[in-house]
Task: structure prediction
Amino acid sequence: MKWNLKEILEVKDFDKLSKEIEKELEKLKIWVKKLSPKMSREDFEKMLRLEEEMGVKMSRLAYLPHLMEAVNQKDQQAKVLSKKAEDLGLKISQTSTKIGLWIQGKTEPKLDDKNAKRLFGVIKDLEYSLLRSREGAKFSLNEREEEIIRHKDSNGVGVIGDLRRMIETEFEYKSGKKKIKSQAELLSLVHSPESKVREDAYRALLETQKKNIDKFFAMYQAIVRDWAYEAKLRGYQSPIRVRNWGNDVPDKAVESLLSVCTEEKEVFWDYFKWKAKRLGVKKLKRFDIYAPMAKKDKKISYEEAVGVVLESFKEFSSEFWQAAREIVEKKHIDVYPSPVKIGGAFCATVEPKINPYIMLNFTGKTRDISTLAHELGHGVHSILANKHLASVQQSGLPLAETASTLAELVVFEKMMAQEKDNELKKAWLSEKIADAYASICRQNYFVKFEIEAHEKMGRGLSPEDLSKIYLGNLKEQFGDSVAIDPLFAYEWSYISHLFESPFYCYAYNFGELLSYNLYRKYQQDKGFLKKIIKILATGGSEKPSKILATVGVDIEKKEFWRESFEVIKRWQKELEEL
Ligand SMILES: [Zn+2]
Result:
């Protein structure tokens, strides 16, 4: 039940591979000297292929210690290798940055548009990423300015981020009579079956945030103002556009997504009202939205879980089934928790020729089946796109969660169809809708809050003003379905995404709703599966909106996002009928 990393690299061959890369780096440096707009297509191709080759080797070199350390945080050998790989990676990036700047047309001898067009098509697979990198030049500054920004960031906003984490880790909470040392532990209590425990945990968290709100506000204000300053300097028309450009998603698509999520919020109100009834209260309190509904859960072995997932995949698509089976059979999964292993779960794509690796912390809960399905979904995605070159095998953010979310849906629907126990089915559905709320509606309102905060911060706000804006945002989000304690006004101050990557959160509702929509299209017409596979097999070699357009999906249209909500509405209906 431990993964076998030999396929990536054997530890004894680490130095040998490292030397190989060093040699190739010398060759790459020679190419840098030969860069010229007049260079032949053949030469340009040779250089790109060398860079790809080095990327693959570097990835193997870095993933070996990374994965070793993931399952054994005390592995000293892994730490040494990891540092070596990191140093070599830095060395390479100095050279590849030079190539990157030249491709952007920013260094002499300048690459003009005509020659860029002539050269970029030489490897079809890389054309999109080369064009995009060149297009990005319009938002970049000159070399010296970029250098200054990098430097100022690492001693400025970068430090603010560290400071915030330090302040939070120093907090000690008192929840009821219990002393609690970490925020993560405290937050796990909001899922407790006891209402008093949930409320105490939230109060402990939010009282602490409130007491320190001036500090969080000062940090947030600096981050927001810095973001605005840089966005303006680079020529973005609004703060959120920085993120949209980074994701390569049209502004219009994001606007449609946000407005539909706002308009369709009431399906979650129905859910919260249902939940209030089930809990025997008149109105649900904000403290209780994650109250578990299950009185029992099924325990399941890993072998059984694999069986359920593979069987569901098989019914859905032979491609999914085949790819997932390969990962399982090749022993690329590290299954059980251990005291030295990191928490959570992930799927790692090393390079196209190696099947991806999956780390789990399987304990036999129903939720662990979903996690297995999710990570195997990522693995399937990676295998389906393995005909591409390494640098474009993986999808960008907007499509990165498509296969994983689909995989979860497929397994969930299958489990629901097979289960006879209505109490269990109710609990599963309830949990599914609560999850959908958290990844769709809640994230949507984070982004809406950010848009308002970024807009108003420049005009002068106090910590209380900002918290009032947040409370207003919550009231709109929950309507009359949930009673909100005024303490929740300070909730914004512990949401790390708002500080660490502004406007990131719409990636969650985007990914989730996109998958719902594709799944729904598949349910209506099984022939749509071919198109799903086509999207996944494109990997990151094409613009996300263009990939989707080729299968008839227009993410700029509100109707598209609205359709996705039909899936949640069906669940809610099923829940009420049960
Ligand atoms: Zn994922």
Observations:
- The pocket of zinc ion is lined by residues 374, 378, 401, 404 (CB under 6 Å).
- DSSP finds 25 helices and seven strands in the chain.
- Strands lie at 173-175, 178-180, 284-285, 333-334, 346-348, 357-359, 482-483.
